[in-house]
Amino acid sequence: MTSTELTEDAVSAYLRQNPHFLASWFVEHADDDTLKTLARKLKQDAISLQASKSPLPPPVEPAPQKQQQQLQQQQQQQPQLRSSHNHLLTVQERSVDGQGDVTEPTSSEQSQSSDSNDRNLQKYTTFSKVSLEVGRNSITSMIFRKYLDGDRTRRASVKKDLDDLRRMSEEELFMELIRDIASELDVSVLCHKILQNVSILTNSDRGSLFLVRGSRDNKYLVSKLFDVTESSTLEQSIHTEANEIVVPFGVGIAGNVALKREPININDVYADPRFNQEVDKKTGYRTHSILSMPILNYEGEVIGVAQIINKITGNHEFTKQDEDLFQKYLTFCGIGITNAQLFEMSVNEFKRNQLLLHLARGIFEEQSNLEKLVQKIMLDAQDLLKCEKCSVYLLEDSFERKIDAQDIMRFTGRFLNRLGTYSRHSNLAVAMQDPSNPRLNEKDSSGPVKLRESPPTKPESVVFSKAFELHEGQIKAPSGLELAQSKHAYIARCTVVEGEPLNIEDLAKDGRFGKGPFTDASGFTSKSVLCMPIHNSERTIIGVTQLINKINGQPFDDNDEHIIEAFSIFTGLGIHNCQMYEHACQLMAKQSVALEVLSYHATASKEEAERFSLETIPTADDYRLYTYDFDDLAMKDDDTIRATIRMFVDANLINTFKIPYETMCRWVCTVKKNYRPVTYHNWRHAFNVCQTMFTMLYTGELRPKFDAVEVFALMAACLCHDLDHRGTNNAFQVKVASPLAMLYSTSVLEHHHFDHCIMILNSEGNNIFQSFPPEEYRRAIKILEHAILSTDLALYFKKRGDFKTLVESGERNFKEEEKKDLLKAMMMTACDVAAITKPWKIQKEIAQLVTAEFFEQGDIEKTKLGQKPIPMMDREKKDELPTMQVGFIDSICTPVYELFAKISDPLRPLNDGCASNRKHWEEMASGNSQDDNTDEQTGK
Ligand SMILES: [Zn+2]
To answer: Gene3D superfamilies, from UniProt (predicted)?
Structure first.
């Protein structure tokens, strides 16, 4: 072009070759007034044409004659090209197009290539296609991401190409709107477009859109789009929170439409008392006619009001046709707004979930200091709370809640033992005993700290011990005096008394809290207030969260209530957690002191251990330790200790692990000392179980299946497996809710035996595993724990099916960890009930002991609990003992010994002994034997 002289012919020639240039140039460069004039002319032409010719408005452009032909060609091409655009446009193409080089085409673009056609045509594409380019599948997630990132910038509104609009049939327009609704989640863009279209189609000067806001009980309208004209851009029309007009339901024309859900069509608004002339006065615009319509959602609720103003043509009155057309288009607004609201809800929900996650993380990061925790939660939540000021008030005794003794015991008991297990020098325990630790010097709280007797009934009797106020990113803690005088604190006190959330729209108007002014010393004026009680885990109120002045000046709504509720729950949780931690630390300190004292008294003296360590102990054969019919009944207590030491020596454990011999002796003495003198579950039982294990390993030839650590742990487990047994069973502990049952929920006693075993190992001079490297130490403790817990018959019943399947499938090696664990568990049971395999004389005597202990428990149940014991423990059923023994053998003993007999022939004596005793009990049960004389008769 630059080389060509600009003559009229040259320009005409160029325009002929580039039929779209003129229109696109107009759109790009013409000022608003020129466009408006042109548009109006176009419209009138279209209407007259429409009236005279066809139902479809043929698009006519005031083009020079010469161009007429070209234009018609273009119109024919249009639908096809348009549809191809819908599918083919890509983001990249658009960005090229966006450079604006169309107005200064280069020579290569002067050709009528389809490419340049596409590009030029693209100038007319509306934003709906822009959104299509992104691709349906990802648009929601993309917009979602944008919302979350806080990018609320709107797409530049594309100036309406009026010609394009004119050319479109109503159907086409509808189709396009449907596409827009499917992809457009920004309700402003969609509604702006609809209002523009409606204005043009109804020949009205401008339109506005109001959306419904507020809570269910207090709804009002806010202006969203105002004065949308044919040429106004979205940016010009949109109202934000800063300039929005608020119209209560029932006030003015829009307010009445919203309230009555019916359209209002007025020709002369100044004659109508509902019309508010204020806006006209402000803007200088003169309103004559108005058509105002409700926008309904699919449930028929009003979600907005749209209106068009000043009909330009005819007698300047909106007709029935205008109403119908407007209504039709508003259906799309309704769908679009509903979509957008649903979308906003899901964005809010997502944000709330994120907040919750964040708060949850915070709670566990910060549990040592309550004040820090509350401050952290407040700062984390400030963006979401959307208020000018946020306060958290804590009640006087929220720092000292009632201690749940069970919780703490469960927690500390296990924790302390584990602590001792895995770190032999507990820094925490040391710190807890440090007299400079202020927590230790607090008043005694070993008993339950009394919470308020009853909740306060008057705000005046509510005392806050502490408050935090978040204002402009800073947290401050008001003094006691400030709290006493603060009107806000008073409102919070009322929330405590009411125990319910409190949402005040406008303090001054509300009147419940005085006339005001609600302005504090710093000049801060409070208007809207939202209060929510904070509860602890027992649903007792421990504080109040308070939000003041919603940022946009509106009342707090349902969404705010949801967020403050989540915030309050987490504050409550955090406080609870902190308090638990503090009390746990206190109790741990106390317990570790107590434990220290106890373990001093519970361990055998150094002198006693020394005595055994210095003497020569008899051999295993002297004690018959390798035999299945080993009998301890005639042994002295000291000999049981010597025999135990002998087994550990002969198992080569003391050598292998370089155990100081004195430590070994002392540990055995201490273990013995920690068995109570109960009738059956005493030291002798433990000693026998350990001997059976020794025999199963060596005589029974199971030893090669295990390494030295396993053998050591198994034998130690046997010796410790009933430590501190009280002569009553698990069911009894649960029944009387003994402290042990509080401490452990399953395998109550077994857990205690294990923990007691750990306590002994942690006592000075008693750790037989002391020379183990850490890894081996942990492993030994794990095996020990597994073995001791396995003596719970409830677990035996669970596992023995697997064991049976394994053995019957021919498994003999038990190399895999899982299989070996199963084998160990079964060995523990086999050893624990091995009295049933002993020669009849021993068996009968031991059965008497077991029965005696059972009867003792039964007696307590009868006398102290007033309950009827199970037959096994009922003294009155003692004649049924033989029958019960047969049952015991059949259900528990025989199944396990039979399997061991299969595994290894040398283990068969266990099964034989058991079978032989069964016969005896059977005979007694059927009355064929004369009870006491049986053994004499059989010569045993
Ligand atoms: Zn036992």
So the answer is: 3'5'-cyclic nucleotide phosphodiesterase, catalytic domain, 3.30.450.40
